[in-house]
Write the structure tokens for this entry.
Amino acid sequence: MTGDMHIRKATLDDAAACFALRREAILARCRGHYPDADLARWTGGEMSATFAGRVAEQFHVAIADGQVVGSGMVDLSTGKIDAVFVRPAYMGRGVGRALVAHLECLAKAAGLYSLQLESTLNAAPFYRSLGFEGDGQSIYESSLGVSLPCVPMTKRLGG
Ligand SMILES: CC(C)(COP(=O)(O)OP(=O)(O)OC[C@H]1O[C@@H](n2cnc3c(N)ncnc32)[C@H](O)[C@@H]1OP(=O)(O)O)[C@@H](O)C(=O)NCCC(=O)NCCS
């Protein structure tokens, strides 16, 4: 990514943008990997207060052209990465890679030795290119009650 993309801690003011880009990213890239009805349920509804609270407490956002173009979070008590989404118009330009690298730095600084995540079926090659391993399948239970096949992956944090 060229230009002035940067990553910062999210605030409550970013919640609506994060909710919108999550929906856009899923509908753009997960189609064909999951039944349309499951994607509609996964992305449907209004933003909940729980989602907004998670954004304010745990999300980090990528900013480019004055707007939120990506999101991601790592739970520093477990090393679990979640909510990695990039706005479709900014995909393929290194935003996802930069977000995961940022979360990895936070995890290392917190003294964690490994990261875990449950990748969507479409994103597993992306995570593999960033050094994550895993090719099994399990079921991701979304907070909206949708069960989605996913790929559990881990990455050992060196040094
Ligand atoms: C997956 C996602 C976060 C990747 O973000 P992105 O900004 O487009 O990815 P980047 O441009 O940083 O790509 C980083 C590397 O991964 C590779 N990559 C990205 N998506 C890929 C894919 N679908 N298949 C294979 N490789 C992929 C890129 O080629 C790049 O490798 P390189 O640096 O060696 O060229 C984004 O496509 C997205 O939001 N997808 C939909 C939502 C989703 O499934 N999120 C994951 C939830 S677990």
In short: Residues 15-29 form the longest helix (15 residues).
